[in-house]
Write a structure and sequence with these properties.
With 124 residues, this protein is an alpha/beta fold. The chain has one domain: Response regulator (Rossmann fold, 3-Layer(aba) Sandwich). Helix content is 38%, strand content 19%. A five-stranded parallel sheet has the order 2-1-3-4-5, sandwiched between helices. Helix 2 runs parallel beside helix 3. The radius of gyration is 14 Å and the shape is globular.
Length: 124
């Protein structure tokens, strides 16, 4: 196996729906990114601290205000505050806690659009 040694960008996918997770993972993996997965905000924060992703996709419709809480905590942490976030949401208006310049994609997710946006936000 010949692996090119290039730093591939890392994406953290936070969603409690396994179908969405595996779908996004496939989209990003095929594009050559390294992906990590978390099924809730608490796990997401831990993964973010460990892996220092270049981008986070965040589901808002997780139990326990998962998305909003995660976002607020992420931004409070100096080492993580600069990581770009794409919110992926099935329903409703933009949560007030989410910064205006954070893009919100609605489900079902368009793979091309998601990928283009991810690359743009990571400067990849």
């Amino acid at each position: 196996m010949n692996h090119e040694v290039h730093m591939s960008k890392k994406i953290l996918i936070i969603d409690d729906d396994p179908d969405i997770v595996s779908y996004l993972k496939d989209v990003f993996d095929e594009a050559g990114f390294t992906t990590f997965v978390a099924s809730n905000g608490v796990e997401g924060l831990e993964r973010a601290q460990v892996h220092r992703p270049d981008l986070i996709t965040l589901d808002m419709d997780m139990p326990g205000r998962g998305g909003t809480l995660f976002y607020v905590k992420l931004r409070q942490e100096p080492s993580l505050a600069e990581i770009p976030v794409i919110v992926i949401s099935g329903v409703g208006p933009r949560p007030p806690a989410i910064n205006k310049n954070v893009p919100v994609l609605s489900k079902p997710v368009d793979p091309q659009k998601t990928l283009a946006l991810a690359k743009e936000m990571m400067g990849a």
